């Protein structure tokens, strides 16, 4: 590329950015694409945190405390449990969501307990309410533990080893633990970052190609004594700039959010900090030129902005696929994946967030690969701009 | 100056341009006159190098436009068939954009822009976004950016199409002025009066072929019609059915 060509590419670059910055629609798309991820993560962690807090300090309303003083004392000794007097109509209180869960101890409790018959304890709960389920489980768990303790004592009193009464040793692996859910949220992050890159690129990629055709301004532009490569390059650089800006802002906000969430309090062992952000950016920023170049190439085929957008939303679905699969089936990263643009960056980000960043060579290889493919796509767009059907077809 | 020799362009089975040759000289206005679909736009598109001829030669100031399209475009100022603008940019920004692509910068570009704005009487609107422009204001903007680099040769595809009286006059003034400054102006039109009022040479084109060329007087003499419009109808064969 000669100096003159480069200068012309920069002229196009500046014009496209100026044009973009004045388009309310494009700014809106960019803002949504950039903020969606961080806001979603903030929301999810907030929900998670409030649920966690709910489970840790549980206030359990009990109706009929006087019928089982020993049980209630035991409950009071459990960490994080506070026993309060229950409402007069427990079922109604739960149905109207005044209480999440109410324990009812009937008056025949003591009598049956003494007779070693199952003493009824009623747990009034609404299992259709997602948000109160952890609390219900916590209460149920308390009674199960009390059950086991008293059962063991009774067996021992009769000279039987409690082990006999435990034919199964049940170990539950709770997959919906907070830790797991946090990991799930984390696995969305690469997806959000990719979305920011994609949406940040989209406006310029479509407006400067299909938009130019739709307005009938392409013909006049190409009459200038600038090679098509200069024009395609300028547009590509402008799209790359907005895409990268979108990624940096999105990543930065995610970092801010993670640093303002007291992860330790939620029982998470990991911390997300600047190294993670740097690693993520190192993985994704070199991909932006590729995303823009592909979008531009596809959008150049479209005669109108709308047509281009429908092509690009299909492209977006295709590109999102590996990310979705990764959130559902945690992928065991294989070496070849690092060299596939889009997939590779996703794997790299997952590695980075998991605290095992790949080596510099892997970063470099991914970058070289996507730059090479970007160059091919820009050449493709340049070739399209030579086609009479593209220039004049409206 | 533009010299065209034996230009051909086919679209499928249609000979859009079928052996067109002419010369358009510096310091003169040449009109490409013909009914819609005669091949005017296709001819111009080949001249401004966005369309490649199937056969023939185009010389723009001795630059072979087929072999060196970019070199030829450097000698050209073009108002193409489609002169869409960028709605979010002002007229001044449009002129600057094309000026910078032509390699003009700084003081030169600012001065040239101001000259054009004055010449086209656009002072009031030049710093407004073009989204709200009238058709005439759009055409002026497109024209200004097309000749920002003061090109030797100016090609205009139906420049006055759909314009109101005042805008038409402004465009005509520009054409006369360019001629007076020694430029070559070649423009297409399907309006007889337009062409007869401005042109030194008229090239009448129909079905991809040149059916007549010469000064307005030549054409009258050639056809035996005193009225140029009758001459046009006879030449293009449009009146074959009715006039015989």
The geometry of chain B reads as: globular
* Strand residue content of chain B: 25-35%
Q: SS-based structural class of chain A?
A: mainly alpha
Radius of gyration of chain A: 30 Å
Which residue ranges of chain A are poorly predicted, with pLDDT under 50 across at least 5 consecutive positions? none
State the helical fraction of chain B. 25-40%
Please trace the helix and strand order of chain A, writing H or E for each element: HHEHEHEHEHHHHHHHHHHH
Q: What attributes does this structure have?
A:
heterodimer; A: 394 residues; mainly alpha; abc type-2 transporter like fold; B: 244 residues; alpha/beta; 6-stranded mixed sheet; 25% strand
Give a description of the structure.
The complex is a heterodimer of chains A (394) and B (244). With 394 residues, chain A is mostly helical. Chain A contains 16 helices and 4 strands. Chain A folds into 2 domains: 3-48 and 179-392, no CATH class; 58-161, abc type-2 transporter like domain (abc type-2 transporter like fold, 3-Layer(aba) Sandwich). In chain A, strands 2-1-3-4 form a 4-stranded mixed β-sheet. In chain A, α10 packs antiparallel against α15 (360-384). With 244 residues, chain B is of the alpha/beta class. Chain B is 39% helix and 25% strand. Chain B has a 6-stranded mixed β-sheet with strand order 6-7-8-3-9-10, with helices on both faces. In chain B, strands 2-1-4-5 form a 4-stranded antiparallel β-sheet. In chain B, a hairpin with a 2-residue loop joins β1 and β2 (14-24). The longest helix of chain B has 16 residues, at 165-180. The model of chain B has no long low-confidence stretch (mean pLDDT 91). Chains A and B meet through α1, α9 and α16 of A and α2, β6, α3 and α5 of B.
SSE layout:
The complex is a heterodimer of chains A (394) and B (244).
Chain A: H1 3-21, H2 24-56, E1 58-63, H3 69-77, E2 81-85, H4 90-95, E3 101-104, H5 109-114, E4 122-125, H6 133-157, H7 178-207, H8 210-215, H9 218-223, H10 228-260, H11 274-284, H12 288-300, H13 305-328, H14 343-353, H15 360-384, H16 388-392
Parallel strand pairs in A: 1-2, 1-3
Antiparallel strand pairs in A: 3-4
Helix pairs in contact in A: 1-10, 2-7, 2-10, 7-10, 7-12, 7-13, 7-14, 10-11, 10-12, 10-15, 11-14, 12-13, 12-15
Chain B: E1 2-11, E2 14-24, E3 28-33, H1 40-47, E4 55-60, E5 63-64, H2 69-74, E6 76-79, H3 91-101, H4 106-119, H5 135-146, E7 153-157, H6 165-180, E8 184-189, H7 192-198, E9 201-206, E10 209-214, H8 216-223, H9 228-236, H10 240-243
Helix pairs in contact in B: 3-4, 3-5, 5-6, 8-9
């Amino acid at each position: 590329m000669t100096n003159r060509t480069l200068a012309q590419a920069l002229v196009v670059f500046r014009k496209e950015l100026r044009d973009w910055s004045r388009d309310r629609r494009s700014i809106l798309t960019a803002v949504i694409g950039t903020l969606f991820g961080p806001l979603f993560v903030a929301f999810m962690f907030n929900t998670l945190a409030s649920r966690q807090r709910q489970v840790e300090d549980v206030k359990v309303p009990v109706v009929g405390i006087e019928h089982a003083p020993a049980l209630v004392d035991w409950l009071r000794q459990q960490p994080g449990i506070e026993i309060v007097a229950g409402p007069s109509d427990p079922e109604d209180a739960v149905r109207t969501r005044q209480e999440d869960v109410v324990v009812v101890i009937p008056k025949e409790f003591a009598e049956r307990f003494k007779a070693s018959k199952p003493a009824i304890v009623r747990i009034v709960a609404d299992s259709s309410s997602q948000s109160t389920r952890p609390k219900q489980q916590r209460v149920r768990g308390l009674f199960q533990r009390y059950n086991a303790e008293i059962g063991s004592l009774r067996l021992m009193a009769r000279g039987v080893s409690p082990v006999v009464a435990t034919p199964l040793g049940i170990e539950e692996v709770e997959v919906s633990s907070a830790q797991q859910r946090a990991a799930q949220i984390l696995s969305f992050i690469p997806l959000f970052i990719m979305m920011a890159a994609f949406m940040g690129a989209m406006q310029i990629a479509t407006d400067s190609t299909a938009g130019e055709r739709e307005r009938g301004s392409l013909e006049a532009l190409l009459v200038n004594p600038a090679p098509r490569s200069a024009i395609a390059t300028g547009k590509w650089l402008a799209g790359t700039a907005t895409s990268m800006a979108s990624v940096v802002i999105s990543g930065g906000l995610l970092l801010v959010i993670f640093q303002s969430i007291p992860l330790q309090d939620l029982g998470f062992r990991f911390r997300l900090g600047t190294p993670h952000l740097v690693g993520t950016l190192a993985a994704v920023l070199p991909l932006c030129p590729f995303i823009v170049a592909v979008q531009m190439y596809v959008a150049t085929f479209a005669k109108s902005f709308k047509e281009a957008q429908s092509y690009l939303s299909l492209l977006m679905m295709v590109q999102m696929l590996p990310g979705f699969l990764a959130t559902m089936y945690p992928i065991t990263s294989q070496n070849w994946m690092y060299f596939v643009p889009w997939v590779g960056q996703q794997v790299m980000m997952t590695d980075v967030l998991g605290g095992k960043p790949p080596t510099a060579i892997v970063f470099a290889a991914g970058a070289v690969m996507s730059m090479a493919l970007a160059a091919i796509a820009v050449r493709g767009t340049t070739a399209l701009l030579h086609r009479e059907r593209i220039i004049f077809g409206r | 100056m533009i010299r065209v020799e034996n230009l051909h362009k086919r679209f499928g089975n249609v000979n859009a341009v079928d052996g067109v040759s002419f010369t358009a000289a510096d310091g003169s206005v040449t009109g490409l006159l013909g009914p819609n679909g005669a091949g005017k736009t296709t001819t111009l598109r080949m001249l401004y190098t966005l369309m490649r001829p199937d056969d023939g030669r185009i010389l723009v100031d001795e630059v072979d436009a087929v072999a060196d399209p970019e070199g030829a475009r450097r000698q050209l100022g073009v108002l193409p068939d489609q002169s869409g603008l960028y709605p979010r940019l002002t007229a001044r920004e449009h002129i600057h954009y094309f000026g910078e692509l032509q390699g003009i910068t700084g003081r030169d570009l600012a001065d040239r822009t101001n000259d054009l704005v004055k010449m086209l009487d656009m002072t009031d609107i030049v710093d407004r976004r073009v989204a709200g422009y009238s058709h005439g204001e759009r055409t002026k903007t497109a024209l200004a950016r097309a000749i920002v680099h003061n090109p030797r040769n100016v090609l205009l595809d139906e420049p006055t199409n759909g314009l109101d009286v005042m805008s038409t006059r402004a465009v005509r003034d520009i054409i006369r002025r360019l001629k007076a400054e020694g430029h070559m102006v070649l423009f297409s039109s399907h309006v007889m009066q337009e062409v007869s009022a401005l042109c030194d040479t008229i090239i009448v084109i129909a079905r991809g072929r040149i059916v007549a060329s010469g000064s307005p007087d030549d054409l009258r003499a050639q056809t035996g019609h005193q009225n140029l419009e009758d001459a046009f109808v006879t030449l293009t064969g449009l009146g074959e059915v009715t006039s015989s």
